[in-house]
Design a protein that fits this description.
Length: 269
């Protein structure tokens, strides 16, 4: 009589896949489900009256006489977004160039869109060498890392609204910590291996500090921390690249902001 082979369990199959450096997406379903809500919205309802904005934009033309060395743009900072920004992920402003001006070519990792308020088609933006006429109500896209400048060969001022994708406004380290704390399980060996492959001392310190701070919840052992600790910076480094003040965590040579160190956002039961 033929012997019936026992069916593999999902755990056995996952273990086989791991040996082949493959992961079933089903292992990430809890994380994906927890992330459905996206970043926690920030900001307050706030109105910037055109009467005030228009007056200040006109004044900016007087005090910033040319747009060659800097953009003549007024940025809208939401009072409910302490790190700066119009929302927690976007920065919006209104820009003006005077008759005959050129706003110098530059590029950045931020994607931008521009809604033209005032222009006659002779005014234009150049994106990676492509000329884009600017007429009222036009939408012009500036993808990430594309060279762009704005030129006004007319006798009238030109004006448009800028909207930039600023991920650094997306909750900062609090949002990073909150998101990571939603994850119930990490493959700690894989995390450690990946960080070591990156070879970044600062990344090793950041990851090591997080794991040590959540040692009990994530069942972190010394074998996971020691390789990261050996890679940590030799001199103190800031967790936040903007050098936000904090306390030195000597074990990682990491200066950690007080709110991250104490997890002050944690809800009180």
């Amino acid at each position: 009589m033929a012997k019936v082979e026992a069916k593999k369990t999902l755990e056995q199959f996952d273990a086989e896949l791991k040996q082949l450096f493959i992961t079933g997406q089903w292992q990430y379903e809890p994380l994906l489900s927890q992330c459905i809500g996206g970043p926690k919205p920030r900001g307050e309802a706030y109105l910037w009256p055109w009467k005030i904005v228009g007056e200040k934009l006109a004044e900016a033309c007087d005090v910033l006489e040319e747009s060659v060395t800097a953009r003549r743009s007024l940025l809208f900072n939401n009072p409910g977004v302490p790190m700066g920004g119009t929302t927690h992920t976007l920065l919006m402003g209104i820009q003006m160039i005077k008759a005959g001006e050129i706003a110098w070519a530059h590029r950045h990792t931020l994607a931008a869109v521009r809604f033209v308020v005032k222009g006659d088609g002779k005014i234009f933006t150049v994106v990676n060498g492509e000329k884009c006429p600017m007429e009222p109500n036009d939408l012009i896209l500036t993808p990430q890392w594309t060279w762009h400048d704005h030129q006004n060969p007319t006798r009238e001022t030109a004006m448009w609204v800028d909207v930039l994708d600023v991920p650094s406004n997306a909750g900062g380290w609090e949002e990073v910590w909150r998101s990571l704390e939603m994850v119930e399980f990490f493959d700690l060996d894989a995390v450690s291996s990946y960080v070591l492959k990156l070879g970044s001392a600062l990344t090793a310190a950041r990851v090591g500090f997080f794991l040590e701070q959540h040692r009990e919840e994530l069942m972190v052992e010394d074998k996971h921390l020691e390789p990261l600790r050996r890679l940590r910076p030799r001199q103190p480094r800031y967790l936040d690249t903007r050098r936000k003040p904090g306390k030195l965590v000597a074990a990682w040579n990491l200066i950690v902001p007080e709110d991250v160190l104490g997890r002050t956002w944690a809800e009180v039961a």
